[in-house]
Design goal:
Lipid/polyisoprenoid-bd_YceI; signal; TTHA0802/YceI-like_sf
Length: about 200
Amino acid sequence: MKRIPALLLAASLLAAAPATALAQATTDLSKVEGGHFTLDKSHAKVVFAITHFGFSTYYGAFPDLEGTLDFDPKAPAKSKLDVTINVKGLATANPKLDEHLNSPDFFDTAKFPTATFKTTKIEVTGATTGKITGDLTLHGVTKPVTLDASFHGGGSNPMTKAYVVGFDAKAQVKRSEFGVDKYVPYVGDEVELLISGEFDRAQ
């Protein structure tokens, strides 16, 4: 019976841990540290959504990313982002579909294994929001794309002690503009992108 209070105390400490971790991050740019950051691959992903014959929305992801961020919290518009996506590493939880998407019918990753995004302009739209415009190169085609970005905050990671900044972003692209037009319009042309990433400041 004496073990029960101890177990309750342990459970309460565990329940409090996420709040403690969240308290490390701040969105107050006057308190955020800048510098050169590298993308934390274990906490970054691009999710895509596309309509399937008008019956449903199909989801997949590009979980293998690399990138760098030069972040200036005093002048966010001067920041620079450079990301490389391993297109060949796409994941839909359907191995046969993954194989088909990698084929010449779609991404043709034997010829175009990666995609890149490099900023050309950043516009601050709010205390924690902005529009990040850059050149997206996919399937051998380069087009400008604008991301609607949200700043989650910066602070020290309580586990790794690294200084981290984190962002979410959304965008919409037409795959046909990049030469990926198989089955359009039956399988949607417009693709929604949901992006999330944490960046660790380089030591």
